[in-house]
Design brief:
Elements (H helix, E strand, L loop, with lengths): L2 H13 L4 E5 L4 E10 L6 E5 L8 E4 L3 E6 L1
Length: 71
Amino acid sequence: MRFDEIVSVLGYAGGHDQAVRITTTDEHEVVGIPTSVDTHITAHEVYLRPSAPSDVEIAVSLSAIRSVELV
């Protein structure tokens, strides 16, 4: 996927409290609801919270994302 498509899907999902499945460039999968997407060059990451109640927040570098899909 192109970078702008990835950011668009993440932004949509975060705005609608919808979970996404992220596939990274090294073939790992992360599922969660985006809480913030920071495209600034110093951060360049997305934060996700798992669908199940948890105090955990997952950070994924935007440059490490190969594809994103709504789940």
